[in-house]
Every structure is written in C-alpha cells, then in structure tokens.
Amino acid sequence: MTKKGIENIVKRYTFIRKAMGEGKDTAVFYIGNRKKSIYITEEVKMVCGIIDEIYSQSDNWIKLLIDGLRKGYSDRMLILRLPWEKNAYYERKHKFIDKIYKCCIYRNMVEYDEIISEEI
User: What is the mean pLDDT of residues 35-61?
Assistant: First the structure.
C-alpha cells in the first residue's frame, strides 16, 4: 500500500463504501465520461476500517471531515461547510492521510522500500 493509494481510497471513499455495502468486489464510478473502477481488496477494506476507527476516536471537526468524505463532497464543498480556511483544511486533510498511512505501517501493509523511497 502506497501513500498515493491511500489518497486515492480517501478520494473515492464514497464509492468504495457503497460497493462494500452492496457486497460488490469493485467500486465503479465515472470521472467525466470515463468509467473507472477500484478493486476492493483486503487492503482497501483495512484502510476503510482504519478510517472508521479514526472516526470513532476523533474530535467533532475530524468527524465532520470524514462525514463529508462519506457523502462524497468535494474539497471545495468541505471548505465551505467546515469552519476552516483553505490552508487549514488542506493541512488537516494531509494530517488525516498521514495518520491513515501510519496505521497502515503499523499493520504491516506498507513495504519497507516504499517507506525509504518516500520523499522528505
């Protein structure tokens, strides 16, 4: 699992949760007129589980961020709905993704080479 893969899961979290709820093995969505899909593997399920754990342990503002992701809101819509400025929103979202990444490292979902090759 890479950090970019986690960002992709967070970005398409709505579609993944919907497909998991329906018992499907792929999440299908459209970007423009192009059909895209994400296979729901065990790693994807674990990342979704980590997001749910973070949701249950976080304060109200992070819960609102995750609720917005679950509803499929774009970054722009979340910036309008949350009481944060643009820079603060992206900083918190980045910290949120980092927290998911650290949890993935703890659960041995990230290869050593991936950690070493990550930019500083």
Answer: 91
